[in-house]
Design brief:
Elements: H1 2-38, H2 41-75, H3 84-95, E1 99-104, E2 109-114, H4 127-136, E3 138-143, E4 157-164, E5 176-183, H5 186-207, H6 209-246
Antiparallel strand pairs: 1-2, 1-5, 3-4, 4-5
Helix pairs in contact: 1-6, 2-5
């Protein structure tokens, strides 16, 4: 009777262990290959290419705005401050920019056209930007994409600060500074943010690749042990029920 109970329990345990082991092996291979497929070299290359394309597009738009700023600075060289506002409005429409502001070297607002006309205190160029533009003649930068998130829909923009020198012989005439603002296309901003977010998530998961594999393999192993333990326990119970009448 005892040998019969042991044989029945062994048969039931083996009947549960063999399928469980087969499922474990298949699942192990599936998880390993699935995790590796998440970090395909082509996917990483595509994300890097998308980021590079976005940077190249923004750089091209910055260069285009720089050329527009040089053109505007040349036309404003001999313009008096009293008529600078009219010229800025004409230049804004001609160059297709959102905003144009003319500042004195002391930080006084001389003229504006576009959105800045409705602002009480337009944003002034920083002292660092003024020092930089004195040596480089023109400076461009992007606002709204520094931290990977746009300030608001349609608010991501490129700004250009250009030096407008005086052409007169009066040495007391101080140079002026022109700030042009051009909005980035919303589609470009949305695509750039999507690619940046996808690349950040990809890099985070790439760093946790081994951790993910160990976590999934550990879960599968624990499930296998629980299944084997349950199969042995059920085998003993069923074997005891079958062997009791014979005993």
């Amino acid at each position: 009777g005892s040998r019969l109970l042991v044989k029945l329990a062994a048969v039931f345990a083996l009947a549960g262990f063999v399928p469980g082991l087969l499922i474990y092996v298949v699942s192990y291979q599936f998880v390993s290959r699935s995790i590796e497929s998440w970090f395909d070299v082509q996917v990483e290359g595509a994300l890097e290419a998308g980021l590079g394309l976005g940077r190249a597009t923004v750089e091209a738009l910055s260069n285009e705005l720089s050329n527009k700023s040089r053109t505007a600075a040349v036309q404003l060289q001999d313009a008096p401050d009293v008529v600078a506002g009219l010229m800025l409005e004409r230049l804004r429409e001609q160059l297709e920019v959102r905003d144009a502001v003319l500042w004195s070297s002391s930080g006084q607002l001389l003229a504006s056209a576009g959105d800045s006309r409705f602002q009480l205190n337009p944003e002034k160029p920083s002292p660092t930007q003024l020092r930089k533009v004195r040596s480089q003649r023109i400076v461009t930068w992007v606002e709204g994409l520094e931290d990977g998130t746009a300030m608001a829909p349609g608010q991501a923009r490129i700004k250009a600060l250009v030096l407008v020198p005086r052409t007169g012989l009066d040495m007391l005439d101080e140079p002026r500074f022109l700030v042009l603002t051009q909005a980035l296309p919303e589609t470009l901003v949305a695509n750039a943010l999507a690619v940046t977010e996808a690349n950040r998530e990809y890099q985070e998961r790439a760093l946790a690749r081994q951790g993910l594999r160990r976590m999934y393999i550990g879960t599968l192993t624990l499930s296998l042990f629980l299944a084997v333990f349950g199969a042995v326990l059920l085998a003993v119970l069923f074997g005891n029920q079958l062997a009791r009448p014979l005993l």
